């Protein structure tokens, strides 16, 4: 399991709609909102899957920027040695 924490910057006035869109994505949880920033976590099976989810955020109307704050990927099964 890979757990990532991100801050999503929103166009002012779009925060509620973005929070709803993010919360509808499997493995994504919105934890906090301060001004036009949303604190989000992603739980995914692999680093690649986490990256794909985070990359999809930019397609949401009003998302200006996505900043990775923390990632724990020691349990990523794709990184285990054979």
UniProtKB/TrEMBL annotation:
<comment type="similarity">
    <text>Belongs to the NapD family.</text>
</comment>
<dbReference type="Pfam" id="PF03927">
    <property type="entry name" value="NapD"/>
</dbReference>
<keyword id="KW-0963">Cytoplasm</keyword>
<protein>
    <recommendedName>
        <fullName>Chaperone NapD</fullName>
    </recommendedName>
</protein>
<dbReference type="InterPro" id="IPR005623">
    <property type="entry name" value="Chaperone_NapD_NO3_reduct"/>
</dbReference>
<comment type="subunit">
    <text>Interacts with the cytoplasmic NapA precursor.</text>
</comment>
<comment type="function">
    <text>Chaperone for NapA, the catalytic subunit of the periplasmic nitrate reductase. It binds directly and specifically to the twin-arginine signal peptide of NapA, preventing premature interaction with the Tat translocase and premature export.</text>
</comment>
<keyword id="KW-0143">Chaperone</keyword>
